[in-house]
Amino acid sequence: MQLEFYDRIFDLEDDVDLFFLHEHVLYVSYVKSKSNSNAKLDRFSRVWNKDIKSVCKQRVLTGSIDFAKPLVRSYNEELFENVSDDFTMCWKKTDTEHDTLIIHLTSYAGHEGRLTSPLTNVSEKIINLDTDLLIVNEDPFRMPESIYPSNLILGCSDTCDDITKMCAQIKTYIKKEYKHVVLYADSKHAGSVLSIAYEMSDLNMRVLVTGGQTTYNWNTSPWVRGYLKWTNRPEQLKHQFYSITPVAVMHIVKCYKFKQMNIDERITDPYKFLDEYNIPVDFYYGKYDADYVGFKNYVERLKLHNLTMHEVDYKISDSQTHNIRPYIDRFVLKDYIQNL
Amino acid sequence: MSRTRDAIKKIAIERLGIELTDETIDSGKAFKDIGVDSLDAIELVVSVEDELDIELSDERLDAVENIKNLADYLSEFD
Q1: What domain range is B48 assigned to?
Q2: Other C-beta atoms within 10 Å of A291: how many?
Q3: Full domain range(s) for residue A290
Q4: What's the pLDDT tens digit per position in A47-90?
Q5: 32-61 in B: which are within 8 Å (CB) of A?
Q6: Beta strands A180-187 and A132-137: pairing type?
Q7: Do the chains contact at A317 and B46, CB–CB below 8 Å?
């Protein structure tokens, strides 16, 4: 299949095309970060732009992304232990007996081309909770995303390359029976968190998720449907421009790859199956998160008994309306854990 | 009365849920010792910039280690 992004045609069957599509997406981010350098931006955007420019420069100078391995694979040894061989999982150090485990599927370290934060770069508010904590992070060196279309659908690393293997690895860390196991995930893992919960449904599982990509299915993804509608527009509308974010481009490519790979619908479109399991899901979404509203509406339309939707009146800034994690970490998580 | 201090206090309580007094600010305690993690600190700055319609220098902000440093820097805009 051939699709048009950024006024170019890319063949989704051709890995070389996919490689250069990913390069182009990174390049678009780089150009944007440069063009914004004189604009009035908030500090988050300024830090983001600085990081993107720095990573691109180092990558060009060294010819690979390996320069980032010492940073991304580092972890705070005072706080964490039992790091997996592939640097995708680690366990909070604690001497206290807890009856609740949080499995935190992060998307902090090394994602979206930034490669500027360590494996254990998670909020202290989560670390300080009265729970055990296991961090699971996708290996950001399994690149490009367009060829290794994970979002945890294909596991988290080359050794745990599907959900079954990844969950088996997670279970090796769980040495006792917890009263509650909470899977906490966001954004790109908003769908896969459920597939993972299903795979470990023998535990006392519940899910806390903040809004994002709730389906990676070619037929149901709102981003795919919107894009295909534009692609198939009538001749008289061919001049129309389609504004699309780099994340959405990668999402569309990944959905196509998952379809090509015949990945089970229970994994690519997991919300459909939620009521077959005894897994309560609390879904928090941002009131101002316009890009992802289609994904939120999609799961709402399924009218699931096990799903509770919560709207959050919060945005980090006018240019950062998607990420509501800071609000959840500050004002929701502690009470959520205490009230289990 | 300081416009910038008032802004810090207002944003800290509204966005971070943290009540800051002049004593806390002047104590020079590190951000983490007053319950402000690194992400909170950036958000505090973002919101202060927005509230006061100012843009702070990244170089100066990189040197800010505690709430007093931030308050002192902001006092230049009073």
Answers
A1: 3-77
A2: 15
A3: 67-338
A4: 888 888 999 999 999 999 999 999 888 888 999 999 999 999 99
A5: 32, 37, 39-40, 42-43, 45-47, 49-50, 55-56, 58, 61
A6: unpaired
A7: yes
And the tokens for A299?
């799961």
> In sequence order, what are the residues at sequence separation of 6 or more whose Cβ sits closer than 8 angstroms to the Cβ of residue B11?
B44, B47, B48, B51
Residue A268 sits in a domain of what CATH number?
3.40.50.1820
Are the beta carbons of B19 and B13 closer than 8 angstroms? Answer: yes
Give the pLDDT of residue A42: 77
Are A337 and A182 in contact by the 8 Å Cβ rule? The answer is: yes
Residues A269/A217, Cβ–Cβ less than 8 Å:
yes
Residue for token pair 């909770």: A129
Amino acid at A54: S
- Among A286, A43, A49, A51, smallest CA distance to B47 is for A43
pLDDT tens digit sequence for A202-232: 999 999 999 999 999 999 999 999 999 999 8
- CA–CA distance, B12 with A25 (Å, rounded to integer): 37
pTM for this prediction = 0.93
- Count up the domains in chain A and report the number: 1
ipTM: 0.83
Size of interface A-B (CB pairs under 8 A): 35
Res. A113 pLDDT band, cuts 50 70 90: low
C-alpha span between A260 and A254 (Å, rounded): 10
- 10 Å Cβ neighbour count for A164? 12
What is the distance between the alpha carbons of residues A225 and A230, in angstroms, rounded to a whole number? 9
- The total number of structural domains that make up chain B: 1
